[in-house]
Here is the input.
Amino acid sequence: MNSTDIHIGLADSERDLEQILALQQLNLKFSRDGFVTVNHTINILRTFHKMMPSVVAKHQAKVVGYALSMPRETNLLVPVLQPMFERLDSLPILRNQRWYAMGQVCVDHAWRGVGVFDRLYAMHRECFADQFDWLVTEIAQRNPRSLNAHARIGFVEIDHYADQTDEWSVVGLRLNDTN
Here is the structure.
């Protein structure tokens, strides 16, 4: 498989959102090949999309990867993520900065290792660097595939903590070099 067979763009249909959920469901369970931890609903994704569209990777009209956009205004939509937003708001490095959160990034197993992940984030930078300084997310320490992939494309750890569910790295990607 070749990543040039993939179209990267903004989610633009209900079908895209439904396919994001289907791919999410396939990757909720723990795996050394990477996993996602939050289970969204179609209504949540619709609301996210209205506020800020997410980036999707498609092969022949099928979503094979996604990177969910979560502006700060989404902090009340997913209760399990409220502590993350509160923590992000308190970080000195993000003070007086324009930032949004990566709600989740996932690539279909068949398309891993061919550059789809990198291209999803490149599209985030292309679409949102004029509006935001930072893209931030939390990654479970027990997900080394995701930690390594984020570090490879330039994310840096800006915080680290443990809670009742896991040990977390908070990582950020500078979207522009103007600040």
The radius of gyration is 15 Å.
